[in-house]
């Protein structure tokens, strides 16, 4: 590179010296001649062009110099365009998954009530046999059962959710799983693959231990109130649907702003649980774990959280996924005010269809082992 520049400069200097010498010789010959001809204007122009290289020549010299240099490849990151058409598929998945979640919860509640009725006498018999059986001291299984029975229904319901989050967190620590975790357990609308499945899986994904601990603590704290208010089946349907709905809100915000990137965490679904409890019981007293002396009502806490997340969406804060938080909170408020009446209380037709399908099975009134009572119960 440096040597090519020296060669070009030396050639230009020799050209300038030869041009100047030819000009002086021609000028001296004109002065000694008897018949002097007037100098042409083009000579001055030619001399000026020879002394000062033109823009085209400079460009050609620069091109020649740059051609010797090795090419430098600069990788410019491609920014996905703001294409709202890519949100059609996630929107269909959100609606379909939400409907399937509540349908499965209604069927699960039906099966749970039926199994409770059928197993009532079995439980009585098991308790009677347990009294006759000699008690074992220090039995690990017995201690686990006692601990499990000491939990509230809400705490037992969210135990499985917390265990799933812990397992996914441990998978993040395995280097061989990093590519798979980044593809399926982080949500990003610009991802060409797994754009729908990651909407659900990312709600069970935490990369930071502090993030996992904070989210699971809030979920554990509000689980008893939420499950006692909704029931375990309806609670799980709301929680899973909230995870997908909050991710959909994040997709919309990222596509509108053009700021794409992976997101993960259960904060959106937990915000739905928190908003549902605060909307149902706005006068309940809450406190921060590190500042227990300061208490505030659940309604005021919900207003502050919604205002902060709305400001984060408008101002483009990037520390949290404020769009997912805001979408989860609004979904929780909407469900308590309208969704419960619109979705859950209209599940009777689905349960009736499921009951008819169940009673027509081998043990139903239409099957070999059925009786007349089953037919009367299905009417």
Give the helices and strands, then pairings:
Blueprint: H1 2-32, H2 41-51, H3 55-68, H4 88-118, H5 120-132, H6 140-150, H7 153-172, H8 178-184, H9 197-201, H10 209-230, H11 232-257, H12 267-280, E1 285-288, E2 291-297, H13 298-315, H14 322-342, H15 348-359, H16 372-378
Antiparallel strand pairs: 1-2
Index terms:
mainly alpha; two-stranded antiparallel ribbon; 69% helix; disordered N terminus; disordered C terminus
Give an overview of the whole structure.
By secondary structure, the protein is mostly helical. Helix content is 69%, strand content 3%. The chain is built from 16 helices and 2 strands. Strands 1-2 form a two-stranded antiparallel ribbon. Helix 4 (88-118) crosses helix 15, helix 10 (209-230) packs across helix 11 (232-257) and helix 10 (209-230) runs parallel beside helix 12. The model is unreliable at 1-18, 20-38, 40-77 and 366-379 (pLDDT under 50).
Q: Can you give me a brief rundown of this structure?
A:
With 379 residues, the chain is mainly α. It has helices at 2-32, 41-51, 55-68, 88-118, 120-132, 140-150, 153-172, 178-184, 197-201, 209-230, 232-257, 267-280, 298-315, 322-342, 348-359, 372-378, and strands spanning 285-288, 291-297.
